[in-house]
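Treating backbone geometry as a discrete language has practical consequences that deserve illustration. Part of our work consisted of pairing the sequence of a single chain with a tokenised description of its backbone. We regard such an encoding as a compact summary of how the chain folds. The amino acid sequence and the backbone structure tokens for this protein are reproduced below.
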Amino acid sequence: MKTLALSVPLVIGAAAWVPAMGQQAAPDASRVSAPLVPRSVFFGNPVRSQARVSPDGTRIAFLAPVDGVMNIHVAPIDDIEKAVPVTADRGRGIPSYSWAYSGSHILYVQDRGGDENWKVYSQDVKAGGPARDLTPFEEILGPDGEPIRLPGGDKLRPAARIENVSHRVPNEVLIGLNKRNPALHDLYRVNITTGEMTLVAENQGFLGFVTDDNFAVRFAVRPNPDGSMAMLRAQKSADGALSWEPFQEIPAEDVDNFEPLMFDASGKVLYARDSRGRDTAAIVAIDTATGARSQVIGRDNCDAGAIIAHPTENRIQAVEFTYDTPWWTILSQDIVRDFEFLKKIDHEAKMLVTSRSLDDRYWTVAFVPDRASPSVYLYDRVGREGKPTRTLLFKTQPELDKYPLSRMHAVIIPARDGLKLVSYLTLPPGTDPDNDGVPNRPVPLVLNVHGGPTARDDWGYDPEHQWLANRGYAVLSVNYRGSTGFGKRFLNAGNLEWAGKMHDDLIDAVNWAVDRKIADKARVAIYGGSYGGYATLVGLTFTPDVFACGVDIVGPSNLETLLNSIPPHWGPYIDVLTRKTGDHRTEEGRAFLKSRSPIHFVDRITKPLLIAQGANDPRVKQAESDQIVKAMMDRNIPVTYVLYPEEGHGFRKPENRLSFYAIAEQFLAANLGGRAEPIGDALKGANLTVPAGVELINGLSEAAGSN
């Protein structure tokens, strides 16, 4: 309901501060005692991932590569080695899926080249054959009946999303689809076998609908101009028409901490994640008749996170909380034994229950440690002779077991105004023999900034942390103000602070690492994607003396053009978004956005910069990278720009992903002095162009020429 998270091929000469091609800064090999881990181990396809038990408990499904492309496989519940692929994607792979409650169908979404115009597909695992496209629409028609076209002339395509599945309606799915109006997702009921589609409710300016297990529309949420939201209750007339009456108001400060979760079995209680009347979001029960709210569980230092609920009785049984590290609070005695049994597998790892059969006999459970491959188990609560059993289904990246990985330290960093910044630090192997989170001497640091910014970093296995640590860098990820998970005061402290106090938090974290002799002050890089890419550009323009180099992945350079080019279906969210960033619709707001946009401060860039962009990115358009690259080239400021024609907001195709990390690794080694695996054939099979700065990356020109 609140999904936000959110060239001309010229070659220029390198300035004096860019290492000349073939002259890489000498790495200090004595810093790292571990072997160099191949990039493919960190960033290649997992061997298997996303295990899900079927609702009837007879099958297990998972994702695994077929000819290098992630596809859905299905096996009998008692023998995963008998799995067969049931989909035949040949493109960028299937990102995620879920079982339908029919027991014989799997639902998944797919876009084209990262454009996020998702289609919903139904795959019959019994009958086989090609998947059925449940949203077979290729264009959105305007008021004149003609297709709406994008500025380049392409037709505007609808974007679908799965809104609800239910064991009470096993052969259908609720889908949101904006084929009538590009800004609004109407609600449709779709038969997963035949594709028959019935309109349930037209969207009247809503952010989303709230439906129950019978697919009845119960509520809708509509934005207000001040950034708050109105929750409306649906009223159904005798002829089936829906009308709406006020139910509750969600103040602007609580919008990002309010989320309807599910109804109880009676349908009379709506469970929600809600921060109204408190700082952190708790799990609350809302009486759907009176609106009265009662708290189920909450904590004072962090928001309520994931929930575990009974598969048919709709009882909340456990709630996860994460301040610095995750823990579960058990609410229902009937799963205490299960948790005690499962935690014996790995009591330190983050534990996730990822699926359950309807009879609640079988669970799939993932364990995510900080320095080993995540592992996935099948848990049989009945087991043999009444004793539960657990079976290892797979490790997602078993090759990781061959290499020593580094501990992720949870650290609390004080900001200059007293806010506590929950952060995560990973050090190069062998540099911290007493395991106190401080290396035996300062090392280069990569400040890895998360996107969003309404998101957060978490403790657990992070391939970028482990990759960078293996190359000889300390890696620091900071939950700066504006991050989620720590209450609404912390979240709203980021409002209008892009390139302001949000960036101050990052600088405070760097200074903290330098003061504690963790980081070498002269060798600090800033690196990130989306908002993290923006933070990189801010770092090199607003604080150019702090960083030795920067890596910007799909980051906006101009906040005004960013807001003017958001996807159409983000339209209802615009007042919430501008409350955070500044308002591009007013003269005062545009002046403010200009003062926080790196594109207007390009002259300050004096350090090497690598920019990577997906050409189909609907959130941060290619123009965001194009314009800052052009501005730098016009001023003869060196920059390397890597463009991926078939990617969007991030790089999903394995060949593209591996090529980016190969390039980034050489860039960081040249400017920080860490280790690097040669580019070699890392560009093989990748689809990329280098519109600028190909000669600034060691080995890139040769690799690109042979690709």
